[in-house]
Structures are given as structure tokens and as C-alpha cells.
Amino acid sequence: MLSTAFVALVCAGGLPARAQSVTGNGDLNPGPPNSPNWAIVGDLRVGDTGTGQLSITAGGTVTNDLGIIAYGGGSNGTVIVSGVDGSGNASTWTNTSDLIIGQSGTGSLSILNGGVVTNQAGYVGGGGGSQGTVTVSGTDGNGNASTWINAGDIYVANGAAGTLNILAGGRVSSTGGAVGAGGVGDALVSGQGSSWQSSGRLSVGLFGIGTLRVEDGATVSSLDGIVGSGAQGDVVLTGAGTTWTNTGQFTVGSFGPGTLRIEDGASVISNQGYIGANNTGSVTVTGAGSRWLISNFGLTIGNDGTGSLTVENGGLVRANGRVELGVAAGSSGTLLLQGTPSNRGILETDGIWAGAGAASVTFDGGLLRATWDNSSFFAGFDTRTIAIGTNGIVIDTDGHDIGISPTFTGAGALIKDGAGKLTLTGDSGATYTGAASVVAGTLAVNGVLGGTMEVIGGRLQGIGTVGSTINQPGGTIAPGNSIGTLTINGNYLGNGGRLEIETVLGGDASPSDRLVITGSTAGTTFVRVLNQGGAGAQTIEGIKVVDVGGASNGVFTLQGNYVFQGQQAVVAGAYAYTLQKNGISTPNDGDWYLRSAYMAPPSSPGSSPTVTGPIYQPGAPIYEAYGQILQSLNELQTLRQRVGERFDGRADDTANAAGRAIWARIDAAHSRVTPGFSTTGTGYMIDSWRLQAGADGQVFAGDAGTLVGGVTLHHGEAQADISSVFGRGKIKASGTGFGGALTWYGASGFYADAQTKLNWFDSDLSSTTAGRQLAKGKGGFGYAFGLELGQRIALSDSWSLTPQAQLVYSHVDADSFVDPFGARIALTDGDSLRGRLGISADYRQSWRDNAGRQVNASLYGIANLHYEFLGGTTATVAGTPLTSRGERLWGGLGLGAKYETGRYALYGEVEARTSLAQFADSYSITGRAGLRVSW
């Protein structure tokens, strides 16, 4: 037998590196060896019946059929295959048949420094009472690995004792393998680059006791892996980069007990996983970076045996499918996720299923991460419970929606993390006493969850019950799953979190979320209201959204669309709602209500406030006034205001009406209107101007009079400032169009003027109160036609009176639109029928200037009564009508003048109007000026 010093010398490169060598001594069969290349016809035995050594170094080669080291009982054989020659050719031992290390004696094979051994099947400890050891270690100077190539399987301890060491970058390959194949076998794969590649199944504990340790970045690969196949198998993988890759199934505890420990950053990769398939299996994955990744199927713990999985301290198990526990009757599956809050054991799966056997799940510092949507994430548990230990559990839904129905027990923390939703439906009110919290995503409690609750981030919702709750900044509590009630069985502290209420905003009986708190409230909570299609309505009592059973010291602050009288308000249709504490009929109940009722203060201390009407949204006054503003641009003027006076005071009143003329005029007006009726109590001021131009021509002339026809073009703009207790805003509108007129000038001083016009509108609406634009560039259309009759009565050559009457019908319409609050706005009634009775007193004077031209001048004063016959204009806001009608009866006074010389005439008027029911409360002042050219 070679001494230890001899082996060390070879490993250190002490033999000549360039001289090929095959040397041996002792019991070799056949022998002695030939050097440097020994080709044997037949088998080779090293240590046939005694002690023998063989060294293949520096590129030497040996070839034979069957190779045996330590053949006979009591024999001892040692073979060293090491190094390369000067050309880089490896020292090689080629066995065309099998290779047995320790058939009946003690055998040792060392493959070192780039040496290569090949054979069919390999046996390390090949018979009863024998012992075999194989060491494959290192690389040559060019980095070529020491290699053992097995065209068949490797059996470590084939009914004997066997040890396989793959070290320092050594490589072993086989079609299959077993450690502890009927005997006691140990395998060690250690170091970066060290590997055992099995294209078939690799078993540890195949009807014998087997131990495999893979460490320090070494790798093992196989088709299937079995730990405990008929006997005890134990595997440890340790160190970063250490990996056992199985392209097929990996089983721990298959007809034999098996243990697997993955630690300190090591990994196992498989296509499918079983623990306790038909016997007892135990797997521990521990340490940061340690992983068992199951790529295509799930993981079964206790299929027809007893299985347990412990994932701890940063370890990770990922199953691309569900985890099954206790599948068959009589089997048992145990899952334990444990660790610390900073170093949790992690399981990633799409569900956990309990079969007909026993199933146990304990979370004590673990993290459970969902990989798929699953409404029954814990399926088949029936009355089984989930234990939460002192270090608690984090459930990370990771963007998925999952449901858990079993009962929780224990006092550890339950933390909901990750995007997605976790729905709890079990009753854990009496069995769980820990501190639950929501960090991210949504936790829906539709059952009962005991302990306490803290909403740190994400969202708590549901129709169930939780314990005393703290709502932190960034957290949201949203009762119901659409609309429903969430109960806090205890106290509530709002620490700047949000309460989200879904409600169909309408009257008192509107469907709505509600938060019920059996205990007391404290702190501040911000409330967001999500209207679910409610069109709004006036409330009396209000829509209850928070029910407080104890002391109501907490403050719930609405986050609305705008501020109404110092309070946040949310809009629904035409209405606005504020959040108020205490009921109307129960003024000390401490509950919180959404109210759209406009309240008058209590008449005496302790009495209830009085509801005087609804609160309208801030756009309502603007929408209500919209039709009136368009009507102001659609008015028809009197004949004199349009074209000036065409009578000249001569006996034939038709003389000056004959002929043709073009004219243009401009109006400017300022109005303040306090309507006689307004749904929202709206008043407004209008500043406007209008430019109109036209051409007139004689159509007919006879003894009785002259008929003049004309066409007109016009453009006008109005800007209105609108105010109400419910809001202030502006409307900027313009109208452009054309029209026509027919005027009869009778020879006796009678005239009849019929006119019409068409208007196209463009409008911008904005709310100052809400601080936003309500509509921009909204189109509209209007038309008007009117008839004016008058009779000039001459009092002298210079003075005359003209009683007159006018009736004008005007219609305006506008495109409907949806406002920023989601309400559809439509102008449903834009009609006006206005009558006027007036009388003017005229003074006329005519003369010729120095050039002999006729000069006509006139002054007049006019008094009018105006009356509106219809009911005003109406806009609907989400179907709610808002009507505005000015005072029906107005009076007006005007002063005007005309100066005409030759073909040219200048004319103008100043007019003031006021409502007569509330004198000067509504008024308008208008100035007009025009130029006419006749020929």
C-alpha cells in the first residue's frame, strides 16, 4: 500500500510533470505494468489478494476491461491517476467495462490534477465487508478538471461501505447513481467547480444508509433525486452557489426515511417535489438565499407517509402549484414557516390543500407569498386551524386575489403585505388574539378576526368584524366589498388615515357603506366618499356612515370636491353633501351623517337645527342662470333702437321711409338681476355688448304707405358674475347670427315692424367656489321673432306722441354636457314671451344748413312697461330642474336723439329699467349708438 506521503507527493506535483509514467508495486494482476502506456487484454486487479499500488502520472495511460481495486478478502489496493504530460494530455485509466473500488477488501482511487478515469458502471465499496473510497480533486495547470466518467451508474456502498469525495473542482458524471446502495455510503461534493452530473436518477439511501453533503459552491445534477429510497438518506447542501438541480421529480422519504437540509445560500431545483411520499421525510430550508425551487408542479408533504417542511431564517421554497398536506388517509403533512421579523422563512405557492390525512400549518416568523389568484387558498381544511406563533406571519398577495377560510389561532402578528387582496372568511374572534395589520394591498375581512388591527398602508375592507383598530397615515378603511358594513368590535383611533365610503348619494335611505364602532373613537380620520351613481337628493336626517357606540371623541373630516361655508362638501348631481356629527332627531348620538340639507341654526340651546332646503352643488347657480344669460344675447330691440327714427315730421309720413339705407349700431349694457323665482336663490350681474349692422330697402310704396325690408348681421358678448349662497361663478357667452325685418310705414303715422333673428352661441362656464372650469366652448342656438305696432300722433309741427306695443318670443337652447362632478347638464326650457307697452314724446326740428342741405334733428323720451308671460328658463342637473325667472313686471325710461344731415344720420339712446315688484333690486342700464346712411 502506498504511504500517505506518497499520495501527498503526487497531489503536490512531486513526480516529474513531463515524463509519462505508469508505475506499480505489490499485488497487481496482471503485472508488472508497462510504462508509459499499459494496454491490458482482460481485467486489471490492483490488490488481488494482497496489497497493491498503481500510479498513472504525467500523461501515462492504462487500458483494460474490468477494473477492480482490492479484489480479494483482506486485500488492499490503491490507484492514483494524476497530472498531464508536456502536451497537456491527461493521465488516463480507461476501463471498457465496470470499475469496482473495494470488491472484498479496502480500495482507494484518487483522480488528481486533471487525471481522467472512464468506465461503465462504478462501484465504490462493491461487496460485503469491503470498503471503497474515491477522491476526485483539482485541475491541471490549464484548468482542466480531474474527471471520473461513468457510462453507467455509480453505486457508493453497494452492500458495503463507500465514500465518494469530489473536491476542488473535480468532476464526476454518470447515467445514474446511489449513495448507500445496500451499505453505508457517504458522498461529499465540495468547492467551486466541483460537480456530480447524473443524467438519470440519483438516490441517497437506496436500501442502505446514504449521506450526501454538497458545499461551498459545488453542484449536483440529476433527472430525479430521491433521499431515503428503501433506507435512511440524509442530504445537506450548504453555502452560496451550492446547487442540486433535478430536471424531474425530487423526493425526500420514498419507502425510506429521508432528511434534506438546505442552508446558508444553497439551492435545490426540481420539476416536482415530495416530502414523505411513502415513508418519513423532513426538509429544512434555512438561511438567507437558501432555496428549493419547484419549477412546474406543486409540492406534496405527506403523500402516503409523514412529511414535514421547515422554512426558516430567510430560506425560500417556491412551488409552481399548490402545496399538499396529508394527502392519503393515515398520512401526515406538517408545514412550519419560522424566523424573525427581519429574517423570515418564505413559502411561495398558489395554494395550500389538506387531504384525507393529518395536516398542520404553523406560522412563527414566516412569509407566505401567493403566486396565483385563488379564492380558496387554504382548501380542504374544514375544521383544521392555522397556528400563528409568537413571531407571526406575513401574507404577501403579490398582486393576486386570494381567500382564506380556516380559523387562525395564536397571538402572533398577522401582516397583510403586497399588492392584491386577501379575503378572510373564517371566525377567529375567540381563537386569535394577536396584532393584525395591513401594510400594502387589500385585506377584506368578511368573517371575524380577533385581536387588534392596525392599518398602516393599503386598505382594510369587508363586511365582517375586527378588533380595536388604529388607522395610520397612508391607511384606508373601506367598509363593505361594494356597499356594506364593517364592524370594529372595540375602540377606534384615527391617526391621519382615511375612511372610504361607497354610497348611492340620494336621500336618507340611500344604500351606503357604514363603519360600526362598538367602543369609543379618538383622533382624526379623513373621509373620502365614492358616489355609486347616485343622482343626489335632499336629506333630512342624513345618510349614516359612522355609527359610534361609545364616546364619540374622534373627528371625521370629509375630503370633498370643494368647500361650502367652511366645510368640505362632496357633489352628487345637483346636490352637495357635508359630513355632520349627530343626528337631527338624535342630536347627541355621536354618529356621523352625510347631509345635503341646508340647516338653519338651532332656535335655542339644546334644540335641533331646522332643515330649510337642500344644499346645491357649486355649479348649480351657474347652470340655472345659463339660459337667462343666453336670453340676454337673444333679445330683439325696438324699431327706433335698431334703425333710428325714419319719420321726418312732414305731412307725408312715408316720404322719409322710402329709399335705401345701410346702418350699424352698438349697444353696451350693465344689468343686475335678482330673479323673482330662483331654485338656488341665484342673482347675477351681466356686462354685455352687441354690434348689429343691416341694410334696408323699399319693397313696396303706395298711397297708404311704404313697406321696407331689411337684413341684419349681429354679434354680441356677455360676461355674467353669478352668486348664490351655494356658490359663485362666471359665464362668458357670445352670440353670432343674422336676421331680417319687414316694416310698414303708414301715411297716417302708423307703423308695424316685424323682425326675427337667429343666434349661434359659444359659452364658457366656471365655478369660482369650486375653483374649476365647468364647461368650455359649449355650443348653443337661439331664435327670436317679434312684432311692434305704433301710431305717431302729431301734437304740433314739432311735437308728437307715439304709443306703441311690442311682443317678442325668444327661444334659446344649448348643448348638453357632463360637468366635472359627473352630472349631466341640459337646458330644457329656454323660452321667453315678453310684452312691452310704451309711449314716447318726440320733439323734431328741421332746417337747412349753409350749404342748403336738409337737417333733421329730434329728441325723445320714452316710458315702457315690460312683462314676462312665461315661467323662465330651466336647466336640469342630473335630472333635477333648476329654474330662474326674473321679475315679471319691469318699468323703463329712455332718452334718445337723432341728428340727420343729407344722407347721414346719427342716433342713440340711453335707457334704464328696473323691476317694479322690488324697485331697483333688479335693474339694467343700456347705452346705444348708431349710424345710418341713406340714398
UniProtKB/TrEMBL annotation:
The keyword Signal applies. SUPFAM superfamilies: Autotransporter, Pectin lyase-like. Residues 1-19 form the signal peptide. Residues 655-935 form the Autotransporter domain. Keywords: Signal. SMART domains: Autotransporter. Gene3D superfamilies: 2.160.20.20, Autotransporter beta-domain. GO terms for cellular component: outer membrane. It holds the Pfam family PATR. InterPro entries: AC_1, Autotransporte_beta, Autotransporte_beta_dom_sf, Autotransporter_adhesion, Autotransporter_pectin_lyase_C, Autotrns_rpt, OM_autotransptr_brl_dom, Pectin_lyase_fold/virulence. PANTHER family: C-TERMINAL REGION OF AIDA-LIKE PROTEIN. This is Autotransporter outer membrane beta-barrel domain-containing protein. It comes from Bosea sp. NBC_00436.
